[in-house]
Prior knowledge:
By secondary structure, the protein is mainly beta. 9% of the residues lie in helices and 35% in strands.
Amino acid sequence: MCRAAKTKQALDELYLFIEKGTPDGYEERFRDAADEYVNIRAGEVVLKIQQVPHAVFTREGENLKMEHEITLRQALLGFEIELEHLDGHKFKLTKPPGQVTQSGEIQRIPGEGMPKYGNNSDFGDLFVTYHVKSPASFTEGQRTMLR
């Protein structure tokens, strides 16, 4: 009677540290890390970073973009809105009273973008496009006040 021998193949492990701010499409190559066969040299393993879309932020290099809807009241009277960033820290969108925010206006917030690749202590900028939500109707009192 013949028994099939069970053999364990040791799996090689590859380690890759993905630095904060690594750009989309970045490739790391591991030479001679793929399978090898008799008379065939071991191949190359290529790991490619693929950015996953986010519901709020869009990445453009080291900068981030987002859109934020504000009320007509906020657009006319100013605002301070606290939001959560990708890494969980809080940041504020602010417009002081007396400065009107236009729909489509873009505000640049320095240092709130992605970490710069190769220099994690430096960050890109965040660009926020505001959209003003207009009310569907006004009450008589609101119309009088606006006049």
